[in-house]
Amino acid sequence: MHEYLDALAVVRAQRPDEPITLLRPHAASRAARFFVEKFQGKSLYAVKANPSPALLETLWDAGITHYDVASLGEVRLVSKFLPDAKLCFMHPVKSERAIAQAYHNHNVRTFSLDSHEELEKIVRATDGATDLELCVRIRVSSEHAKLSLASKFGADPSEVADLLVATRQVADSLGICFHVGSQAMTPAAYAEAMEHVRAAIVEASVTVDIVDVGGGFPSVYPGMEPPALEGYFEVIHNCFEDLPISYSAELWCEPGRALCAEYASLLVKVEKRRGQELFINDGAYGSLFDAAHIGWRFPVALQRSDTSIGTQMAEF
User: Fold this and answer.
1) CA 94/CA 101 separation, integer angstroms
2) Which of 27, 108, 283, 296 counts the highest number of beta carbons within 10 A?
3) Which domains does the chain have, with CATH numbers?
4) What share of the chain is helix, strand, coil (3-state, %, to 5)?
5) Contact, 143 vs 96, CB < 8 A?
6) pLDDT digits over 232-268, tens only?
């Protein structure tokens, strides 16, 4: 791996014809330290956001010790590179084999679920283990997010109370988790979700040990300038303090984009210009899938060599 002062230095040194991913470990480290220092709870990095081993190690070195893994592949990956990390299998729909391997082979004790069927799978796959942390995922609104996740996962409000009671019977620690959607643009998203948490606890009359507010913490993009994250943290903590929960209950979150958005950028070559259109050497079925298919706008900067117009590059 080569080190350069900036993107323009890469252009001048390599004059690349292929797309190049530029990494900024210091940016990810800075973001991780921000969550560790400012969020009044535990921060679980959502590995699916960027599963790069180098990034995982950077976050670990900056103080992130808990990791939200969404598949058996991610369990194995983090176990390999960070053997002392705590892994939390937070995908609410898993195969019985994946649960068993995570529990028996990789010391995973934390699982999420959103149905009685999933609860029964976890109990069978772990041979009725008594050391489980089980988080019931509830369905909340994604109306404040740029990418909705409301309809995909989460127990329906009419089912939550029974599921919490059943889960409490087999869990050493009981949690409630939710996800307000990707790129939540206002702290109100979390305040509204916490009201659903309160209602669920009151209806089920159970002791809750973990409240996991999930991800959704926004980064800054063109046309998307959210409030400062400190405002999100303050709202979340105040709502948490008002919940009818165990005095020793823990507050968790699962940042993904917020920890890795500034870690990498993409350097592409401008092959042709036609009016206001640019033809570049990466695109809709490569690294810029989100930009092409969901209309996500990324910051773009022109990087032009002083010696030749043939080395015009765009950095996303």
Assistant:
1) 11
2) 108
3) 7-21+263-315 (no CATH), 25-260 (3.20.20.10)
4) 40, 20, 40
5) no
6) 999 999 999 999 998 899 999 999 999 999 999 989 9
